[in-house]
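Researcher: Next entry in the queue.
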Amino acid sequence: MIQAKTILYLLSTAAVISVLALVITPAPNTIGMTVENEEPQANTSSAFEVSVTGTGTVYLDPDKVAVTLGVETNAQTAEEAQQQNSQKMNQVMSSLKALGIPENQIKTTTYRLYADYDWTQNGKVFKGYKVMHYVMVTCYDTSRAGEILDTASENGANYIGQVSFGLKDETLALARQQAIEKAVQNAEGEASSAAEAMAEATGNTLIRLDPTSLSVGYQYYTPYRGYPAAAPEGVQDTQLEPGQVSVTVSVNAAFNASLGIPVTVWN
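Model: Structure for this entry, 267 residues:
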């Protein structure tokens, strides 16, 4: 008869063999197959920094015009030149105020008195004294620029200088903010394109693009400036077409680009 110890030994050995067989037996139709509806996971292998400059420009219709105009007079004495100039300039100023231009929007930019000479082969010849008095007139209705020039000319102004169409301070601040937003978007696009190109060149895939720094670079405001001629005496039809003005801003940005090779997730 077989002893009880021998029987127990045989039974335990058979159980161990059965467990091992269960562990190493593969489930049918699963070896080498990806899990259904499972997205591949990326194994990040490297990272580098992308530094770019983005620019943004905003175009707006001007809401401010500044006109430089004035009076020039000549006389044999300094006193006479000043008196003539003062008389004509007072008439110009009164006509501008009659148009509704506030006094605080009329500012003297140049006042000069000097001895005037002609230069000949025999040296300089005294001509008399000259007085120049120029003012800058600011108006927030750009359609009145021609009216301002014509009115000033009819009332004694014999100098018409620069006409500049631009933006009010609050309008300019808003335009700069909009230009910065455009510049940031441009920088993001430039960084993305550069990182994608690097990934393709190295056989990798762009995994992440994270901004690390951003600073505002140059800001450029371009008002329209011109030097129009006033209408002929007695004619009130000076026309000025300002077009649009532009506000440009640049930003300097840096991004961390992470590259990786997609790998398959196995069951």
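Model: The mean pLDDT is 82.
Researcher: Noted, moving on.
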